[in-house]
């Protein structure tokens, strides 16, 4: 089955607001710094992590993780926005938001993490016509994947054409600066985005596309995608992976994007958000009820399932459909892998130097259902469905 179709077109035209959208400067609202600081609830308390070798006995190891704070979600006009994505870079954390209803409201929190024991607000912004489903930071810019209100385009478009790629410049402090530039891409929703070697890989979902841009917004290549949901690029093997809504993964090189391998990923959790990430020469897949699946990947051989860490069959008081692995993050700074598992909490993995395989070293359980996780340095940021974003520091 072909997931990643041949190149549709190539263009050297940059994002041009006059061609595809009305200017977005009117849609960009920067909130007072006190808004976010008032939404940060400080805990600074040790969080016991359950050691995997003694889960059944309920024993704990000695406080390797500290629960630093909770960031309550952005609100707009009586609506509570849901944290949708995270990125961490240069002592800054970026949390994107999307409205959960049929409105098209999005936003971004920017947090200074230089002192992780006391994270502070840099700014919060609201996009009144642009809900953000994914974002990544690079080259002093925020690159956004989402959906813009169809009638806010000029001329207006249908919902099937409202997937939108956006660029917002960042100033020297990490704050968004100037106007948001955006263009519609094709497809109903922008679903994911990745940054590698000064190229941006934008993915849209149903009726969607994989579009490659450079950092100035010039389109480099465009491919038709069968319902793209997640994209990841390996910094070590120069490989590209695309997860689709029908539980398949296309693997390709990135110098010439052309489908080389298709993985079939069985999953019972239809419709849930799931992500993928690369870990050394392996592909990590958040696989819903089936938990974390680890594949060995190579240019000249089919990817092979080498490990799986399934969700528990049941947990008292928690619906089975809330026990799902929705997100996975590899931390190149300390070698840890962290998964967000809905109401099953966060799971932390580390490579066993003897077997060279991942081992589950512990589980973090706090209230809420975790949808997305990102870990860099000694920090874990984890987004919950409607309870805001949790911040943890790691000492492992």
Shape: globular
Distance between the terminal alpha carbons, to the nearest Å? Answer: 43 Å
What level of helicity do the residues show? under 10%
Number of strands: 33
Radius of gyration: 20 Å
Structural commentary:
- The chain has helices at 17-20, 33-39, and strands at 4-9, 28-31, 40-47, 65-71, 75-76, 79-80, 82-89, 92-98, 106-112, 120-127, 130-138, 141-148, 163-169, 181-184, 190-196, 199-204, 208-214, 219-225, 228-233, 239-244, 248-253, 261-264, 276-279, 282-286, 292-298, 301-309, 327-330, 337-340, 346-351, 358-364, 370-376, 379-384, 389-394.
- It has 396 residues and is an all-beta fold.
- It has a five-stranded antiparallel beta sheet with strand order 1-18-17-16-15, with no helix packed on it. Strands 2-10-9-8-7 form a five-stranded antiparallel beta sheet.
- The protein is globular and about 55 Å long.
- The model is unreliable at 8-26 and 53-61 (pLDDT under 50).
Summarize the structure.
This protein is mostly beta strands and 396 residues long.
State the main characteristics.
five-stranded antiparallel beta sheet; 33 strands; 396 residues
Layout of helices and strands, plus pairs?
Elements (H helix, E strand, L loop, with lengths): L3 E6 L7 H4 L7 E4 L1 H7 E8 L17 E7 L3 E2 L2 E2 L1 E8 L2 E7 L7 E7 L7 E8 L2 E9 L2 E8 L14 E7 L11 E4 L5 E7 L2 E6 L3 E7 L4 E7 L2 E6 L5 E6 L3 E6 L7 E4 L11 E4 L2 E5 L5 E7 L2 E9 L17 E4 L6 E4 L5 E6 L6 E7 L5 E7 L2 E6 L4 E6 L2
Antiparallel strand pairs: 1-18, 2-10, 3-4, 4-33, 5-6, 7-8, 8-9, 9-10, 11-12, 12-13, 13-14, 15-16, 16-17, 17-18, 19-20, 20-21, 21-22, 23-24, 24-25, 25-26, 27-28, 28-29, 29-30, 31-32, 32-33
